[in-house]
Design goal:
The complex is a heterodimer. Chain A has 8 helices and 7 strands. By secondary structure, chain A is an alpha+beta fold. Chain A folds into 2 domains: 109 residues, Ubiquitin-like (UB roll) (Roll), CATH 3.10.20; 131 residues, Alpha-helical ferredoxin (Fumarate Reductase Iron-sulfur Protein, Chain B, domain 2, Orthogonal Bundle). In chain A, the strands form 2 sheets. Chain A has a 5-stranded mixed beta sheet. A two-stranded antiparallel sheet of chain A has the order 6-7. Chain A is elongated, with a radius of gyration of 20 Å. Chain B folds into 3 domains: 295 residues, 3-Layer(bba) Sandwich (FAD/NAD(P)-binding domain); 134 residues, Alpha-Beta Complex (Flavocytochrome C3, Chain A, domain 1), CATH 3.90.700.10; 126 residues, Fumarate reductase/succinate dehydrogenase flavoprotein-like, C-terminal domain (Methane Monooxygenase Hydroxylase, Chain G, domain 1, Up-down Bundle). In chain B, strands 6-2-1-10-18 form a 5-stranded parallel beta sheet. In chain B, strands 12-16-15-13-14 form a 5-stranded antiparallel beta sheet. Chain B has a 4-stranded antiparallel beta sheet with strand order 17-11-21-22, covered by helices on one side. The two termini of chain B are 37 Å apart. The chains are: A alpha+beta, B alpha+beta. At the A-B interface, helix 1, helix 2 and helix 3 of A face helix 2, helix 4, helix 5, helix 10 and helix 11 of B.
């Protein structure tokens, strides 16, 4: 297969970037999108040109490192996958493909397609945990958790922290990312003790990092490789209101 | 050569059951108010590193954590699928500390330390308690209590799991605990930092040199102790189930400063991976061992059969694992299952003449219903379908073994300290507990055992006896200069091959000669080939770009240069171990039934390799393994 690629190149966040046109041929349909980039890079290096910098690691859709905006969609046109799980058989031979980094004010560009997502770590630092020191846990089965609750918690604990939700949101909101963790803990008995401070602190940190507000378009959930539900955001807002009232009254 | 050094692997004397308690009681303690004075560097924050950092942070040590990724949550522990073993015996099927200990020792083909493995089994229950308290959404049954499933090498159900994403959930738990400590100020986080050098004097670690992978700047930090938790070296093979950035560099640079490297040829080749399909393939994808709970492995009984699976009638299918191993069936350990798959393919029974065998769920779907199978393995089936385009609910999966985990690693004593004082090694990066073959669902257990429940005690003992020593500025300068020179050498490579091209060649050599089957002739060939390839790298490779900017090719080049040295040691290790055990199958040493034939008289030891300088050859030290509690038998899964 042949493709006409337009790839975002930017040496650092101090200089402006632009699209580079690259025509690639002889791509196998069984190649993943990132393997195509590997091939392009190999060709660039052999031509003594600078390869394209892009983030990737596990290449099986779980580490959350890869982060490409492909033809304007986070992780490309297919639903419920990450960029590394996208295969060239999904594209039409000869088509034009635009490749960009996930763009948001809170995700500064490091180089080409690589962005800085440390804001996500700081949101988790604000409350994305249950405070239990090593050694102080009660025996595991003393806390029964109804199967449905455990499954609900699991459904949002799946978040891989890739940032597709932010990149797809017109407000660059990190609501889905933040809500996923809050929802996970709010469904479990272990998460109850800290729930007031958790939601207040995490939401506050999210705003401080420069992510926008949620206006419920649902683009985040549609682009989420783990299909995390919009319901998590409603739950976060409910929890936040309760917590806010609790704190102020 | 046996050295007196190993008389002090610091295993406490006394009965097996009491050793860990005895060790803990003998450990010196550090007063809580003094802990802040100790600077601890932790390199890597997967399960082992993050759990260690969180636990030591809770104790108020002064910690710096370094990861090569943009966040600790990216560590490759995240990709572990199947589960984590523990001796809870919630299924009431006869599990106990002793049984997990025995299964693990036997699973490792009697090439691990009894005392370490027993301790691992002892703390395995605490891990589950802690993880549940952290809010990890383990699978539960309808009464709300924890569920278990079976894994290879065990005849009972002791594996806790969170669908096919157990590693992810456990890592996010440890990551959360680590983030909590960052907020508390006990841990300072350095993302996108790669360890390039160890600063030592008189066999004692004083600090380390890191490269900031964004700015390219070198930074050194002094340390009271350094904890390496940098994972395994499976990527030496180029194609493996490891993440693309997994590497041996931190471990290897410590090895070059004197840390012994143990059993480097013990590499786990996992039986159920998606087979290689195209030339430009960048990695292989694992299909969890848990699938062998319900999937049946088979090939056609007819050589060179080119029929698609649905045209092969039941009577012409060979469920070879069930046939050869009636009591363990499809749940034999990984090394055994992998080898048998290779034998089937080599004999001409591969799926449509390819390097693949079937893993079939049709019987399980008939018996338990589609919904049940989807609930257990849904994400794995989806992953398979996306990669291959085939639907495993309808046609059997095609699988083949792939490099997955490394039992070998830096040598550590009972306290997880390497042969360099003050340098501790945790998780997959050490050689510790799995002998010559690791059982499924035991890597997560070991990583978290090391980090949550062993290092918090054993590190204190070291620190109490080594209050902050004087450190010399000159040592730091020297180490930084070394690293700078190494980077400049790499950047000066302007040949005609990419680093990847050379890495692929190394992978081919290792896969062919140090893979599932090894022999003397092949290993000697590999030794020569790797030497030549290393010369080729330093002449022919091309490394683009500059030093002081994000430069992924430069990062890769440094890692591949290290793999090229490690590869040679793997070959040497495999050559000198003239027996078969677990993953290490030398064709010269096999039973009439084609099983691994151990030689306990001459090889019941850990091979620990020392490199004195780059010009000298490796020196082999042997740590004799003493078995006082288990009888060494032929490992039988029939």
């Amino acid at each position: 297969m042949n493709f006409n690629l337009k790839i975002w190149r930017q040496k650092s966040n101090k200089v402006p970037g632009s699209f580079q046109s690259l025509f690639v041929k002889d791509i196998s349909e069984d190649m993943s999108f990132l393997e195509m980039l590997d091939k392009i890079n190999e060709d660039l290096i052999l031509k003594k040109e600078e390869p394209i910098a892009f983030d990737h690691d596990c290449r099986e859709g779980i580490c959350g490192t890869c982060s490409l905006m492909i033809n304007g969609s986070a992780h490309g046109p297919q639903k419920a996958i990450t960029s590394c799980q996208l295969y060239m058989r999904e594209f039409q031979n000869g088509s034009e493909i635009y490749v960009e980094p996930f763009r948001a004010k809170a995700f500064p560009i490091i180089r080409d397609l690589i962005i800085d997502r440390s804001a996500f770590d700081r949101i988790q630092q604000a409350g994305g945990f249950i405070s239990v020191n090593t050694g102080s846990a009660p025996p595991a089965n003393t806390i029964p958790v109804p199967k449905e609750k455990a499954n609900q918690a699991f459904s949002s604990a799946l978040c891989i922290g890739c940032g597709a939700c932010v990149a797809s949101c017109k407000n660059s909101s990190a609501s889905l990312f933040t809500a996923a963790r809050i929802f996970h803990f709010s469904k479990l008995p272990q998460g109850q003790a800290e729930k007031t401070n958790r939601v207040l602190n995490m939401v506050k940190q999210m705003e401080k990092e420069g992510f926008g507000a949620c206006s419920h378009t649902g683009a985040c959930s549609v682009s989420c490789p783990k299909e995390i539900s919009l319901e998590t955001i409603s739950e976060m807002h409910r929890e936040w209101r309760k917590a806010f009232l609790n704190k102020t009254t | 050569m046996s050295l007196s050094f190993f008389n002090s692997s610091h295993i406490p004397s006394g009965p097996l059951e009491e050793k860990w308690d005895k060790a803990k009681f003998s450990y010196k303690l550090v007063n809580p108010s003094n802990r802040k004075k100790f600077d601890i560097l932790i390199v890597g924050a997967g399960l082992a590193g993050a759990s260690a950092a969180a636990s030591l942070g809770e104790m108020n040590y002064n910690i710096k954590v370094f990861v090569i990724h943009d966040s600790p949550r990216r560590a490759h522990s995240i990709a572990a699928q199947g589960g984590i073993n523990s001796t809870k015996n919630y299924k009431n099927d006869g599990d106990s500390v002793k049984r997990l200990f025995y299964d693990t020792i036997k699973g490792g083909d009697f090439r691990a330390r009894e005392a370490n493995v027993y301790r691992l089994a002892q703390v395995s229950g605490l891990i589950i308690d802690h993880c549940v308290a952290q809010g990890i959404p383990f699978a539960r049954d309808y009464g709300g209590l924890l569920d278990n499933r079976s894994f290879g090498g065990a005849q009972l159900s002791r594996t806790f799991y969170a669908r096919g994403q157990t590693g992810q959930q456990l890592l996010l738990g440890a990551y959360g605990a680590l983030m909590r400590q960052v907020k508390r100020g006990t841990v300072q986080l350095f993302t996108q930092h790669e360890m390039l050098n160890l600063i030592i004097e008189k066999q004692k670690a004083h600090g380390a040199v890191f490269r900031d992978l964004i700015t390219g700047k070198l930074k050194s930090f002094k340390a009271s102790a350094i904890l390496l938790a940098t994972g395994g070296y499976g990527n030496a093979f180029y194609l493996s189930t490891n993440a693309m950035n997994s590497n041996v560099t931190a471990s290897w640079r410590c090895h070059k400063k004197g840390a012994f490297f143990a059993n480097p040829s013990f590499v786990q080749i996992h039986p159920t991976c998606i087979p290689k399909s195209i030339e430009g393939q960048s990695k292989l994808t694992l299909m969890s061992e848990s699938l062998r709970n319900d999937g049946r492995v088979w090939t056609s009984k007819i050589k060179g059969d080119s029929r698609p699976s649905h045209q092969i009638p039941e009577s012409e299918r060979d469920y070879y694992l069930e046939r050869i191993y009636p009591s363990f069936g499809n749940l034999v350990p990984r090394d055994v299952a992998s080898r048998q798959a290779k034998f089937q393919v080599d004999k001409g029974y591969g799926v449509q003449n390819k390097e693949a065998v079937y893993l079939d769920f049709s019987d399980a779907i008939k018996k338990n219903g589609l919904k049940n199978i989807a609930e257990k393995y849904g994400n794995l089936f989806n992953m398979y379908q996306r990669i291959t385009g085939d639907d495993p609910y309808k046609t059997p999966m095609q699988i083949y073994p792939a490099v997955h985990y490394t039992m070998g690693g830096l040598w550590v004593d009972y306290n997880l300290q390497s042969s360099i004082q003050g340098l501790f090694v945790l998780g997959e990066a050490n050689f510790s507990d799995h002998g010559a073959n690791r059982l499924g669902a035991s890597a997560l257990m070991q990583g978290l055992a090391d980090g949550y429940f062993i290092i918090p005690y054993s590190l204190g003992n070291f620190l109490a006896q080594n209050p902050d020593s004087d450190f010399k500025e000159s040592l730091f300068k020297q180490a930084e200069e070394e690293s700078k020179e190494n980077l400049q050498n790499l950047l000066s490579l302007k040949g005609s091959q990419t680093v990847d091209q050379i890495h692929k060649k190394l992978g081919k050599i290792l896969w062919e000669h140090v893979g599932m089957i090894r022999d003397k002739e092949g290993l000697m060939k590999a030794e020569k080939k790797i030497k030549t390839l290393r010369e080729e790298f330093w002449k022919e490779a091309f490394v683009p770009g500059e030093a002081f900017i994000k430069n992924q090719e430069l990062e890769k080049a440094g890692r591949v240069a290290d793999f090229l040295e490690l590869g040679e040691l793997m070959v040497q290790d495999a050559l000198t171990r003239e027996e078969s055990c677990g993953c290490h199958f030398r064709t010269e040493y096999q039973t009439p039934e084609k099983e691994a034939l151990r030689n306990d008289k001459d090889f019941s030891h850990v091979s620990a390799w020392e490199k004195k300088s780059s010009k000298e050859n490796w020196i082999l030290h042997k740590e004799t393994l003493k078995f006082e509690n288990v009888k060494l038998t032929e490992r039988n899964y029939k």
